Amino acid sequence: MLLVDGEPVLSSAAGATSRTVRTLPTFLTSLCACAPVSLILRCPVCLPLQGATGMELVAALAGHPGLRDAADRIKAAPETRISAGQEGAPRHVYVFQREYATVDPARVELVGTDEATTCIGVVIRNNRTGMTSVSHMDFPKIVEGGLRQMLELLGDDNAPFDVHLIGGFSDASTKVVRSSGKKHVKQEGYSYPLCCKIVEVLHKSQQQFHLRTFCVLENNTATDSLGNALPVIGGFVVQTSSGVVTPASFDMNSRCPDEVVRRIRVSVSSYDPTWQGRLLETYDTQCDVFQIAPACWMPDWADIASSLNQLSDSEVLMQCSTSPAAEPPHFVENERRIWKYLINNPDWEETFPKYKPRVFHRTNDGNWSRYS
């Protein structure tokens, strides 16, 4: 059930002189073990009462005045720069693409992600305990299982949960497809179907979620001097004690631990059946340690990496990115570091002996050290 400012959804029948408050019926069966999710907005939004889909929900949320104002506020906020290894730096947990982490505010002060272009960052926070889960979603097929993973350690199902959706941009173009004498409108791109899936899965539950930020798609799009669409915000950080979310970027040394190996997992996990429909497990909430869950790759990945490493920088962008014009300056450098690692380590068992996780504990100075 979708609630608006704590109330059931308002109907929006054309030509009606008054609006009736009604509930929006469940339109899809539950696809995951967790309880279905409702979205609660700060102010009213009108939706069709029957047959609501992810596309209809996204359209309504994107045009909602309160959510647009919230998106404008976060876009106008100064960007926080996160650096590791500095004396007095807050304890933080960094989430890479296709990863998630649930953190305890008693142990971790900041949790966040960056480098999102067509991806969408999801924040779910338990307001009673401060337990906060952040994911970096990149593909619709991981959304259902990924949200279930995020909810596992958040605690009381009856607690009020805040949700923030940040990232992605208007990378979709509208294409008219004709078949069987009929005209069909097709949205091409990556951000749009991902956002539709996230909202649609959330909408299925009776668990109430307060949607605080919807800075995605058109609400997160700018244009450069050449007319290329770009995301305004590609990274954010959550203050676990307060739940405040601000734009953020992370220095290379703060995207730790095990940066290159974690980047490699993003690529190879698509071919590893262990991770089908799931986010990559990375962080142990209870112990405040990183457990980089294993992923395997075929020996020919070294040959593939060697071939890719011969490409020019512009070719790397065009062949390896979902949004070549929107990537940060270090994108190509990161890709080449991944390929060099695969060339030097063609056997995945050298990285994950006996298919065991790589475990790192936090040191007194805020850095990470690997367990032997």
UniProtKB/TrEMBL annotation:
InterPro entries: NTAN1. It holds the Pfam family N_Asn_amidohyd. It comes from the Eukaryota. This is Protein N-terminal asparagine amidohydrolase. It comes from Urochloa decumbens.
